[in-house]
Sequence to fold (189 residues):
Amino acid sequence: MPVPVRRRRRWPWLLLLSLACCCGCPAYYGFPISAQYPARAALPVQVDDLSLRQDGRSTETAKKLEGEVRKEHWLAEDTFAGVYATTSGKRVTVFGGTGFRLSPESDAEAEISRLTERYALDAPETVDTGVRGRHERCAVGSADGSAVVVCTSVDHGSIATGVFTRLSVADSAELLGTLRAQIVQPERG
Fold:
């Protein structure tokens, strides 16, 4: 008499696979958004060896840049701009805004494209930020007859752009990361 062969049930594996796809994928892609948005911005007076300049010309430049950011990124919740300098003469102009960004990578490319004519930028380089959901581009150009490096860093909650004098691309990208960490603070729970 033949012994009936027990059939393996497949539904537990299908259930686990369905749960992984339905819950795991949105969590993987949603985590950077929840970690980066919403955010607030405030310019510190001192960042490493950089001091925020508050003279008339620097304040006027900052107000002009903040107005441009507001005009270009009309969904920005908050905007910021400031001019920093070191005692050795290095100058950093930083500007940007906070607000939800669905596609940070294309926003980073668009910001560099927007600034290409103003600063006569070369082809931009992609910089690895080490942060999932944050995209950074840097390009070499010139302003007022001096060589500058323009870097922009965009994540799901903010955009920050810096114009650096007397620094290499790698040093500029690193300094933008330092500035960004001091200026933009995610608002978590």
Summary: The chain has a mean pLDDT of 88. The radius of gyration is 23 Å. The CA atoms of residues 162 and 175 lie 9 Å apart. The beta strands are 39-41, 46-47, 50-52, 78-85, 91-98, 125-127, 135-143, 146-154, 158-165, 184-186.
